[in-house]
Amino acid sequence: MSIALLANVLTIILCMAVLVQSVRMMKSLRTVKDGALTQVVEALQVATVQARAVLSDMKHTLGTDCARHAQLVERARELRDELSLMTGIADSAAERIVNAVSLANAQRSPSEGEAAATAEAEAIAEAVAAMAEAA
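RESULT FIELD:
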């Protein structure tokens, strides 16, 4: 057997293998073409449309809700500042009341001062508690 004849036989065997694989590949492509690929593409189309709708809704919702929440946060900050100012005013008023009571107690006599101081201390405690609740 010559080398040329051996090379031709080997080439024939390889060509047959290529033909068999080509036939198998053609069958597989027909199967995909007939049904599966069309259904996959249609499913992807539907999913894409739904995803676009959801993204559009999310964009709209975020646009309106974020603006509304920003307004609420700004209003809350204004209220916080106002309450802080009110608390400061109430604290300074309570301190002035305590100072005035201390001066008045110092000017009274000792026996009269104890009863009055107790009553005034209770009144001050109630006033401070009322101010704290109002703030």
